Amino acid sequence: MAGVRTRRSAGRPSQRVLTQENITAAALEVITSRGYEGFTMSSLAARLQVAPSALYNHASSKAEVLRWIQDHLMAEVDTACFAELDWPDAVRTWARSYREVFARHTPLIAVIAVLQVSGAPRTLAMYEAVTEGFLRAGWNQARIIPAIVALESFIFGSAFDAVAPTDIFDTGSLASESPLFTAAVAAAPGRESGKAAEQAFETGLDALIHGFAGTPSGN
Amino acid sequence: MAGVRTRRSAGRPSQRVLTQENITAAALEVITSRGYEGFTMSSLAARLQVAPSALYNHASSKAEVLRWIQDHLMAEVDTACFAELDWPDAVRTWARSYREVFARHTPLIAVIAVLQVSGAPRTLAMYEAVTEGFLRAGWNQARIIPAIVALESFIFGSAFDAVAPTDIFDTGSLASESPLFTAAVAAAPGRESGKAAEQAFETGLDALIHGFAGTPSGN
DNA sequence: ACCTGAACACCGTTCAAGT
DNA sequence: ACCTGAACACCGTTCAAGT
What we know:
The structure is a homodimer.
Chain A: H1 20-34, H2 41-48, H3 62-74, H4 81-84, H5 87-103, H6 109-112, H7 121-136, H8 141-162, H9 179-187, H10 196-213
Chain A binds a DNA duplex through residues 18, 40-42, 50-54, 56-58, 61-62.
Domain HTH tetR-type (chains A, B): 17-77
DNA-binding region (chains A, B): 40-59
Organism (chains A, B): Arthrobacter koreensis
């Protein structure tokens, strides 16, 4: 064919604006400042200073952008702990950071639960690191996935709980119809200090970790 | 003032159509047949044979209708088990039915997590029955709520997992970059039989139940 | 008291037309 | 190759007008 031509302005690399990374970063900025209700294709486009329709040259749908965000956030989950701590403490550290990241992004949980790992490299890297940690702790290969999935289910559910109003258990005018529950709520630790969700999370996490350890045939 | 008048046609009780119960039942019919994507104020109104705007004389918003549905479904969760079985089996039965009900209604989980029990009588009744079951089993009052919340978090997360595609863990072209995870997935029980989610749920439920039992100061 | 129909202020997405 | 602007087919919700 004809001689190779330099494309674009030859000098500095042409600065593409609508890359996956840029769109994801802009999306996170919108979500941080205006929440998920304020995160629309319009608000995302505005932040990138393009027309909404321009986004569709790079993402097939809003759902795809959400998947990019999800995978991006997965890199923030601490997995280094598995190389530094023993299994119970490593799981605790991993689970806490996992919950913390997604408590701020609960609308993504419905996305994650359905997401194919093959399209989410950082999510896959997270699973690989956790699996490695379990194996190093002597876990039987066949029991690892159910344990991770169970922990993950607990983490996702706890993420919702973490951002729930603190007064959801106030029985109000129906207190007399639920005396036992009302009393239990009043007696629960972390009440009024706003740490009830943390208490429940740590309680469940402890139970899962001890429960896995004390399971019939060991780990 | 003037003499009391009988209102409406005096004979048979005027059959009100847009009651909370009727709206809730119609909403569930729409959701069952067309899913949550197909559940709109328009589709709900169509099933009730009224204009969409008529709904707003009875419900303040779509979110309120969702809260009605959530509370309605809570009555389907099995709590009778606490009067019939010992604590571990009762918790297992309760948790299984709770997960089963909401696996078909995962979009409601975001609603539940934020819902005030004072506005949800059946939800409150469920908590009361569970609390009673824990007390009867000898649980310390102060430890009940964190345990219930932890179990609930696990149940909600597992509900998402229950309806996830079975192939989410297929690593595809990235298998070589995640050899340990890929091998663990291949070795996991329930694979190909489509029962992986059930395996993970039962594994986690067992761990939680045993973990609670084996917790420092007993229950 | 409660319904209808029109309207409002949005959504996500598509697509012809441009460069 | 990638952007714009207009348009489409929806949403949930409001409200004046009716009965």
